[in-house]
Amino acid sequence: MPIAAKEKRDQLMRDGFCIFENVLAPEMVAKLNTMSEWMIAQQDEEHFEQHRSQGCIIPYWTCPHPSFTELLIDPEAMAVFAELGFDVPKFWSGFVISKPPHSPPLYWHQDGVLWKHPISYTNQPQQYFLMYYLVDTNIHNGCLRLIPGSHLKRHPLHDMRPRDDDTVTRATDMDHLAFQQVEGEVNVPVRAGDIVVGDSRLLHSARANQTDQRRTVLTIWYWPAYDDLPDEVKALIRDHITSRSEWADWVEQTRHITKSFLPVYEGKAKAVPWGTFPGEDFQ
Ligand SMILES: O=C(O)CCC(=O)C(=O)O
């Protein structure tokens, strides 16, 4: 497929991210804000405590809402993939992540799951996030920050396992490396309605929200070139999406809308084991 957004595609491959401005209309942003508030209101106190560094993180299928389904297949957003040269992206998962007023930064981390497969050590397109910030962001209200190129090159932060440490996820140890300013980081302020496209292996975090307003982002995960993935990776994707009954139910209930974006693998290959940390070969 031709690549209309050549510079952005080059940036995505080289730096691990790129930005498309002004993709969602203000009405859609308003609708998604209403949806997010409805989902956030359903969480209990322990959820917010446990995920204090993120604010909250709600898988879309735990509170099904038609606006999320609409966003998954949004033609303007899918046109972003087409401009990048990906004409058959397949969907995986999605979350509402929201920082309340006056809340701590998000810890540094990466979200790759294929580190036990050689594909992770190549620049073949694998898993990308689309991030939709629902307010304009800046360094005061919790904008994204990231380390360009860290999807391809080891950084000392790769040796950390922040999600295994309660003092990080609950943001009770703010001296932890996971919260520090680090060499090579860049801030990524955006406007509501923009999309940040990023490689799941990229190290990223978010600044603290020091304002009186909530800061919400929706992250949706896709496999932009699913058909080119090895069978054992397709098997991992298939097994994950059907691993929880609530999730599998959502897939069935919305299949009539999302059908062409659902990954299908009917082969016999054994799924590659889940691998969330880079091995020593990653240098
Ligand atoms: O809150 C953000 O800005 C990014 C959230 C994120 O990437 C995550 O929690 O994995």
Provide an overview of this structure.
This protein has 283 residues and is of the alpha+beta class. It has a single domain (6-261), classed as Jelly Rolls, CATH 2.60.120. The chain has 8 helices and 10 strands. The strands form 2 sheets. A 6-stranded antiparallel sheet has the order 1-8-5-10-3-2. A 4-stranded antiparallel sheet has the order 4-9-6-7, with no helix packed on it. The mean pLDDT is 96. Residues 54, 57, 97, 106, 111, 144, 204, 206, 217, 219 line the site of 2-oxoglutaric acid (AKG).
Rg computed from alpha carbons, rounded to a whole number of angstroms: 18 Å
Strand content: 15-25%
**Measured distance between first and last alpha carbons:** 32 Å
How many strand elements?
10
Instruction: Give me the CATH fold name.
Output: Jelly Rolls
In short:
This protein is an alpha+beta fold and 283 residues long. The protein has helices at 6-15, 26-40, 45-50, 66-72, 75-83, 166-169, 231-241, 245-258, and strands spanning 17-20, 57-59, 90-99, 106-109, 128-133, 144-146, 186-188, 195-199, 204-206, 215-223. The chain is globular, with a radius of gyration of 18 Å.
